[in-house]
Amino acid sequence: MIRNSYLKDKLMNDLLVGTHISMTDSIVSEILGRLGYDFIWIDTEHSENSYTSLRNHLTAVNAGGTPAIVRVSMNDYNHVKRVMEMGPDGILFPMINTAEEAKAAMEFCMYPPAGRRGFGPLRAVNYGIDDMDAYIAEANEKTCRFVQIETVTAVNNLPEIVKNPYIDGFFFGPCDLSGSLGELNNVFGEKTRREIRRAISIIKDAGKPVGVSTGSTDPEVTGFWHDLGINIISSGTDYDYIMRGARDNLRSLRSLNPGEFSTESDLHTLTVK
Question: Which of 18, 81, 263, 270 has its CA 20 to 30 A from that of 107?
Answer without folding.
Answer: 18
